[in-house]
Design brief:
Layout: E1 2-7, E2 10-14, E3 19-23, E4 32-34, E5 36-41, E6 45-46, H1 49-52, E7 55-66, E8 70-76, E9 81-87, E10 90-101, H2 107-118, H3 121-161
Antiparallel strand pairs: 1-2, 1-5, 3-10, 4-7, 5-6, 7-10, 8-9
């Protein structure tokens, strides 16, 4: 049984007891973190969003550390262009404690649906009016910004119209005068 999880835009294959390095997480050492599954495999493969609601992947933050330093050097030959930089990734080490398939839906999803169903329809209308009122001033601000954007666009073609000055040809050395002046 294993799962493929997503963390920091990267995917990792994990099993119970696996330790892995991921991009730095905002959790403290010793905290439990739930990871987002992308795929789960036991006897069959689960990959849909509805099926993955039943999958639970938890890990414990073991430590925060920094990766190996990467050296970056840019250079163009015969041009005198050299740039040196470095990079060191901030990482978090995780220990996977639990990978399992729950029998029913998660409790958090069940609590949200009844709370939304209990609200009367009349209570929903004033909230919609408040949202609409909040959106109107934002629309006016956006309209005010549009003319400013047009002015900036008008300046750009003028800048492109300028042509670089033509290079003047180098002066040629004066020809030597012959001593044959007829004397």
């Amino acid at each position: 049984m294993y799962a493929v999880i997503e963390s920091g835009g990267k995917q990792y294959k994990v099993e119970k007891g696996t330790s892995l390095l991921v991009d730095r997480l905002a959790a403290k050492e010793g905290d439990k973190v739930s990871l987002r599954p992308v795929m789960f495999r036991d006897q069959e493969v689960l990959a849909g969003a509805k099926a993955l609601e039943k999958v639970k992947v938890e890990a414990t933050v073991t430590e925060h550390l920094r990766g190996e330093k990467i050296k970056v050097f840019k250079y163009k030959p015969k041009k005198g262009y050299r740039r040196r930089a470095g990079h060191r990734s901030e990482l978090t080490k995780l220990e996977v404690t639990e990978v399992k398939l729950l029998s029913g839906k998660p409790a958090a999803a069940k609590e949200e649906k009844p709370a939304a169903a209990k609200k009367p329809a009349a209570a929903k209308e004033p909230a919609a009016k408040k949202e609409a009122a909040a959106k109107k001033p934002a629309a006016k601000k956006a309209a005010a910004k549009k003319p400013a954007a047009k002015k900036a666009a008008a300046k750009k073609p003028a800048a492109k119209a300028k042509k670089p000055a033509a290079k003047k040809p180098a002066k040629k050395p004066a020809a030597k005068k012959d001593s044959d002046d007829g004397s």
